[in-house]
Specification:
By secondary structure, the protein is of the alpha+beta class. It contains 13 helices and nine strands. It has two domains: 32-114, no CATH class; 138-333, no CATH class.
């Protein structure tokens, strides 16, 4: 594997308890049947698969349990051959299910969901993506109705309010830069679940004197962003920290409690030979490094606040260009 395709590591590799930090990975794709994907993933990850339910397989590996599924609850739950149905319906159900399954596998993404992976094992995901591409996996650009993503669930070094603020500030300033690098396909540009945070909230967040308690941080965020549909979704993290407080603003059974951020922005462009999992991950590492460099974070905050003012300079130079130049000058990219 070339150096450009290697997964970089952030400076902070361990949590405050001393454990290696982990990250969950979710890969949406098409081009392979569900059965073929389960079989191939089993070979690539040296795991054994068991059927958990219809269109849901669990793959036990040395890295933990991967889940492979069709990403549609109505299709997964549909069973026209249920023994509780009349026999005449069940006789036709088999044929109907074949038609439904064939259509679903063409337009509904298949998804590989990893367990929390130690950061040092991420090259395994790089290899997995490359081998899936060679086997015919397709990503977002293949059809206008595809809007497939590659999602990351990075564990934070700790859950202190000051740490969260740094990461949130870094993301808010890098959002446009990250979107320019990883939002290739028009189908995902039109979706609502990769939106930036509310502008008023962002202005509050990047102020130099913003130093909330964890409760105030949650309330500030949820006042302006009470939805899962954000490019960096904080609701799983907030459910882990204080589920009762979260329930004051949002009730959604799809929210899964976990001590991680939920980064939803990047496309999955897996059939493109120039696209690599490591590229997505390495750009996240840029955010990691910025969040943990206080002088640079303060400097970029000042530039970001200035970019949000009405001025001739801001009319002639975009924030993504300014951000790219600054990152290059500082050696982040």
């Amino acid at each position: 594997m070339s150096e450009s395709q290697a997964c970089r590591m952030p400076d902070i590799l361990r949590t405050e308890s001393g454990e290696e930090r982990r990250v969950g990975v979710e890969i949406e794709l098409s081009g392979l049947s569900y059965g073929a994907l389960v079989e191939l993933a089993g070979k690539l990850l040296s795991g054994s698969a068991t059927e958990a339910s219809r269109y849901v397989a669990e793959l036990e590996t040395d890295l933990g349990k991967f889940t492979i599924e069709l990403d549609s609850d109505p299709i997964k739950d549909l069973d026209l051959r249920d023994e509780r149905l009349p026999e005449s319906v069940r006789e036709l159900g088999g044929q109907a299910m074949e038609v439904i399954d064939a259509a679903a596998e063409k337009i509904v993404p298949l998804e590989i969901v990893s367990p929390p992976l130690p950061l040092s094992t991420l090259e395994r995901i790089e290899t997995l993506c490359e081998e899936l591409r060679k086997a015919g996996a397709l990503g977002s650009r293949e059809a206008i109705y595809y809007a497939f993503g590659l999602q990351l669930n990075p564990e934070l070094p700790d859950l202190k309010a000051s740490t969260l603020v740094r990461y949130l500030q870094a993301f808010s300033m890098l959002y446009d830069w990250l979107k320019g690098r990883h939002q290739i396909d028009i189908s995902r540009k039109f979706t609502s679940y990769i939106e930036p945070w509310n502008g008023t909230y962002t202005d509050k967040l990047v102020a130099d004197d913003y130093a909330p308690t964890i409760e105030q941080l949650m309330r500030d965020y949820l006042k302006y962003n009470p939805t899962r549909n954000k490019a960096l979704d904080l609701l799983p993290l907030f459910a882990h920290i204080d589920s009762k407080l979260l329930a004051e603003y949002v009730e959604d059974e799809r929210i899964k409690s976990r001590p991680t951020l939920h980064y939803r922005l990047p496309d999955c462009d897996i059939d493109n030979p120039e696209w690599h999992f490591s590229t997505v991950w390495n750009d996240w590492v840029v955010l990691e490094q910025l969040a943990n460099n206080a002088p640079d974070l303060a400097e970029l905050r000042a530039k970001f606040r200035e970019s949000r003012k009405l001025s001739l300079r801001n009319l002639t130079q975009s924030w993504p260009d300014t951000c790219e130049q600054w990152l290059q000058t500082k050696g982040y990219v």
